[in-house]
Design goal:
This protein is of the alpha+beta class. The protein has helices at about 5-25, 35-40, 45, 65-80, 85-90, 115-130, and strands at about 90-100, 110, 130-145, 150-160, 165-180, 185-195.
């Protein structure tokens, strides 16, 4: 069975059955990479200190604040996928930092400052040229005060293009947020991808 045949089989299964079909079909490899190169270390995000997950405990924020923090993640995902720079601009503080990593705690990209962050998302969107959908889940608010919070989240990112539908990435996020004018905004967003099955944007 050739690699191309296997890739086509996974694409067809994905198109027919969606993400469930991809999970059944097996992993999709980025072009020019081996399975070993695409396999991250187990629990890499915790081992590298990229995320800190606390034990089960009483809520550290009000139900409303937890809902609004979850909405910040969801709004980020939808705005990213639709290329809505003005919406993304409302989600980050003036001194925001965005870090992107791939299977280890050391980022391969760090962007600093509100305008640079928004411009970088626009650049990434322009390079991808396909339709992505960020599906957020497992939002945990780990620390919170009246104006600051730290939260974690998972996301699965589907990618639809002329080749069909594939699972583009599985991601763990950790974020520092600040409340400004009654709105929670990202002051630091770490985007940790377990694997990235399409070519990475140029940074």
């Amino acid at each position: 069975m050739t690699e191309q045949y296997e890739a086509n089989r996974r694409t067809i299964l994905g198109a027919v059955a969606g993400v469930a079909g991809l999970a059944y079909a097996g992993p999709v490899l980025a072009q020019g990479t081996s399975a070993a190169e695409q396999t991250p270390r187990q629990a890499w995000a915790t081992k590298d200190g990229a995320v800190r997950i606390g034990p089960n405990a009483a809520p550290v924020a009000s139900a409303l604040d937890m809902l609004l923090i979850g909405q910040a993640f969801s709004r980020y995902g939808m705005a990213h996928d639709e290329g809505l720079g003005p919406v993304l601009a409302t989600l980050f503080t003036a001194d925001a930092v965005v870090e992107v990593a791939d299977g280890h705690g050391k980022p391969f990209q760090t962007v600093r400052g509100h305008d640079a962050v928004v411009a970088n998302f626009a650049n990434t969107f322009g390079q991808q040229g396909d339709q992505r959908r960020h599906c957020f889940s497992n939002v945990l608010v780990e620390e919170a005060s009246e104006t600051k919070a730290r939260a974690l989240a998972y996301a699965l990112v589907s990618v639809a293009s002329g080749g069909g539908l594939i699972l583009g990435a599985a991601v763990i996020y950790t974020a520092d947020l600040r409340k400004e004018g009654g709105l929670w905004k990202f002051s630091r967003l770490f985007i940790g991808m377990d694997a990235y099955t399409t070519p990475k944007p140029k940074v």
